[in-house]
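Section 3.1 - Work completed
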Amino acid sequence: MGDTGKPTGWYLPEFAHPYNVLAPHTQITVASPAGGEAPLDPSSVEASKDDKLSSEFLNHKQSLWQKTEKLSSFIGRAKEFEAIFYVGGHGPMFDLATDETSLQVIREFSEAGRVVSAVCHGPAALINAKLSDGSYLIADSPVTGFSNDEEDSVGLTPAMPFKLEDELNKSSGGRFEKAKEPWGEKVVVGRDGRLITGQNPASAGAVGEAIYQAISGNHTS
């Protein structure tokens, strides 16, 4: 992760909690840029050790992240799915923010009327996402993600390639929103219910609920 020498990847509760909400109602396919095993941020295991749901997910659902499909295989297939969701963890800051395949998949999902969603650092995948007309996907839409204050509080701002809050605010035209206090739950819904973002790990379950409501036809803008 940057010049820290520490490994990063996806963040355990930010996958576990939305999965717990959605799995009973949907068929979930897991993808990563390279396919195969998607690296789990080891620090999230320690941070979530008292979270029973995350611990059970870690112990019983390994195949989900050990056998991911390659993201490029989803190009041209948006209409086969109801939504795309980007799990957080610092990993997306270093790859998905500029991954051309990911940006194309996001554009296709959005233009097919599918839900585009992300939590915590997952919205890094959205900062450079553009529609076919060249406009930013999140332009003029409320959006959230891991805040500058939260990044500062974990001491990792210097290791990041950019400040997520600043870039989301720029691409959205100043529409970034956050909870009143750092680490508070915050979920933001925009683009007529088809853009869903959550601020931090505490928001992961609520993001899952918002996705379920949107794909069930009960979304609100």
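Second construct:
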Amino acid sequence: MTTIVTVGVLALQGAFYEHIILLKEATSQLQKEKIRHWDILEVRTAEELQRCNALIIPGGESTTVSLVASRSNLLEPLRDFVKIHRRPTWGTCAGLILLAESANRIKKGGQELIGGLDVRVNRNYFGRQTESFEADLNLTFLSGNPCPENDEPFKGVFIRAPVVEKILPPVTGEQKEEANRDGTVVAPGKDDGAEGQKSWPVEIMATLPGRSKRLFEKLEVTGLNEEVGDIIAVRQRNVFGTSFHPELTPDSRIHVWWLRQVLESMAATAVAEDL
């Protein structure tokens, strides 16, 4: 029997349709390699979320997505999906904000987070809409994919983009020290009951050199190493986040890479369940 992998895209607001286009292109490429059958699903309800093996939270307006999810009784199912069931989840731009355990430059009560990534993000770090830009990114994690163009730079689109301001220590539950910071909100703690969350540190997957040094003083950012540059992509356990918008390009390489990660995660889960 052929197993169908269902990949959901949270379709409450933002660039969900653009993600769907690239997912269809990516799954078509994988099917040519005879790798699984795929179903792409727009997710607006808890019932639709429950059908998914993996989920993308697209770019858009994080406050709006959070509000609509709350009114749709979807926030808690999303937290369970990410932090209890540990299903693969990727957030782009606003999605990265929602998947962070801590986010600053937010009014208290102004936005709720899903969590899953032990990071603090700085919202709209790169400025207003008029200060949006594109940059060629050297994404070394793509180089393992069997495709010659994976060594070429990836065109990153940054629109009112956040940045990972600080990597936080992995904890089980809420990031309590972050909760005491002014202008900062934290995700509520959720525990999957498994031991060893602290053994899953945050991986820095990509940086944007140079800009943090120029904006460091202007934005009063703390916790960044100027030599490292701006952290624009991170991964921790089942969660992946990018500051930029791959969905606003015609380039499906990250989507192909992420779908391969989904398959690896599903295979690892199946092995664990058989033990």
